[in-house]
Write a structure and sequence with these properties.
Layout lengths: L2 H13 L11 H7 L13 H12 L10 E6 L2 H10 L63 E7 L8 H18 L3 E5 L3 H4 L4 H8 L6 E9 L17 H4 L5
Helix pairs in contact: 1-2, 3-5
């Protein structure tokens, strides 16, 4: 059938587009072609966009409506670097009134409605703290925690009655990823930081983040404007052929 080569050509075309090009794209275009961003600029993500992305996660499907997820939005680069490099982080201290987790104003989404706001190990490797994204070349370092202006830590409540809380959290991550790309940002989902977040300093990290230590980290979503000066396309791994991964019956 000729439709398969045409579809593959379209997917390759979308893969070459910058994340900003998806700001006005359809949801289907975003899902099929956004890809993974491996280098971010330092441009901050405005609070209204952070909240829009978080709300997309909160709107995700959930088995028997258990909503077993919990999100911590971090925009403080020092906090990201500490989490990534040492498995711990310095106390955040008291923040401005009305800000979640006691974070200072500007470091977390502000004025989140009541009931929806975030509650009150070894080195991970990756790009060294402070390295400029522009130094990453095709086939070189890939974006890690600390390389984006926004990181959303996704935690899971294993005590929920959801038959598969991991799956529910995965749906929430995907919703936030699509929301971020639809707003013109690049995004990348990583799981390696969870080894630190759930490691020997888990309870300390939870205390410093202001979250319940019974929660378990399952993923981290990196979000920010893509660094267009870095080639994130030519060395990207290819996707499996449609016919090798799909069976259509009927």
């Amino acid at each position: 059938m000729k439709i398969i080569p045409v579809l593959m050509a379209l997917l390759m075309l979308f893969a070459c587009l910058s994340p900003a090009a998806f700001a006005d794209a359809s949801t289907l275009d975003i899902i099929q072609g956004a890809g993974t961003t491996q280098a971010f600029t330092d441009e901050a993500v405005p609070d209204e966009d952070v909240q829009a992305i978080l709300r997309a996660g909160l709107a995700s499907e959930s088995a028997i409506n258990q909503q077993p997820w919990y999100f911590v939005a971090v925009t403080d680069k020092a906090v990201m670097d500490e989490l990534s490099a040492s498995g711990g982080m310095p106390p955040m201290g008291g923040g401005a009134p009305g800000t979640p987790n006691g974070m200072p104003a500007g470091e977390a989404p502000k004025d989140f409605p009541a009931g929806e706001s975030p509650m009150g190990t070894p080195p991970m490797g990756g790009a060294p703290a402070g390295d400029a994204p522009a130094m990453m070349a095709a086939g070189g370092d890939k974006a890690a925690l600390g390389d984006s202006p926004l990181a959303i830590l996704v935690y899971m409540d294993e005590s929920s009655k959801s038959p598969n809380p991991n799956f529910d959290c995965g749906l929430a991550v995907q919703n936030m990823y699509i929301a971020a790309v639809s707003l013109g940002y690049g995004a990348k989902v990583i799981s390696s930081p969870t080894m630190t977040l759930n490691g020997e300093n888990h309870d300390q990290i939870c205390e410093e983040l202001g979250i319940d230590p019974s929660l378990t980290a399952v993923a981290v979503l990196l979000i920010g404007k893509a660094d267009e000066g870095v080639d994130g396309v030519s060395s990207a791994s290819t996707r499996a052929d449609f016919e090798n991964k799909v069976t259509v019956i009927g």
